[in-house]
Write a structure and sequence with these properties.
By secondary structure, the protein is an alpha+beta fold. It has twelve helices and six strands. The chain folds into two domains: 52 residues, no CATH class; 155 residues, no CATH class.
């Protein structure tokens, strides 16, 4: 059966990804899968687009709570585009999809990994001086109320007190953290796991890649072995180290 998706999006030459800012209509189950990105046809080609429309209702509510008047659609658009252009264009990337999908599930217990990955990509790929100039109270509230993300909230608040030289030196100071985090995640994925005690073991990456669209089943059924717990704890410690290193003031 054919499925349909009607939406509004925005893109310009400076964006890595077009940004979907409103879902007008979607057939049932159209949004299943990766919540951050959509594959949409654009002039005959499939193009990844960032889906900011998932935050639209919460953003409208946030703006309503700070004003006596209901925000207009244009005001909601403006904030979504500001957050998308200055934060998510850098913090989100399609090569994070597996890690983000796993971190969304409590069964894998790697919640800090998402925070570390998004903060790390933001600091390494964004124009931090432009970011500092764009940060305002609405953007800060967005990462406190709409998309709660304590590390990003702390980081963008911290940039307001830093000069250009400090911001320019940050990517150099943290450039090795990406490799450190990737190595810890890879080590976690290589852990042998089984479905039952004494069952046949396979590396975790085979289980998750073979069941990518039912990762909840993997998270709920793999045996939590001592080796898996150690490598997961190591990944979470590395994730926390990445966050602390970025937020450490020079």
């Amino acid at each position: 059966m054919a499925t349909f998706y009607l939406y509004r999006k925005h893109s310009d030459y400076s964006d890595n990804f077009p940004m979907v800012i409103e879902d007008i209509y979607a057939s049932p189950d159209y949004m299943s899968g990766e919540p951050r990105f959509l594959k949409l046809m654009d002039y005959g080609k499939e193009v990844f687009s960032i889906r900011l429309s998932q935050f639209r209702c919460a953003t409208e509510n946030m703006l309503s709570n700070s004003s006596e008047q209901t925000p207009t659609s244009r005001e909601v658009d403006r904030l979504l585009l500001k957050v998308g252009r200055n934060i998510f264009q850098s913090a989100w990337h399609d090569d994070q999809n597996l890690g983000m999908a796993m971190s969304d599930l409590p069964g894998f217990r790697i919640s800090h990994f998402r925070e570390a990955a998004e903060l790390l990509y933001l600091t390494l790929t964004a124009d931090l001086c432009d970011l500092r100039g764009a940060v305002d109270e609405d953007i800060r509230r967005f990462f406190h109320e709409v998309y709660p993300h304590k590390p990003i909230y702390s980081f963008i608040t911290q940039t307001l007190d830093q000069d250009g030289n400090q911001l320019m030196l940050l990517p150099k100071r943290t450039k090795n953290l990406k490799q450190l985090l990737a190595k810890a995640f890879l080590n976690y994925l290589q852990t042998p796991v089984s479905w039952a005690e004494g069952g046949r073991e396979e590396p975790l990456f085979k289980r998750v890649l073979g069941n990518y669209f039912r990762l909840d089943m993997v998270a709920d059924n793999i045996v939590q072995s001592e080796q898996l717990c150690k490598r997961r704890d190591r990944l979470e410690k590395v994730s926390q180290h990445v966050i602390e290193s970025i937020l450490l003031k020079p």
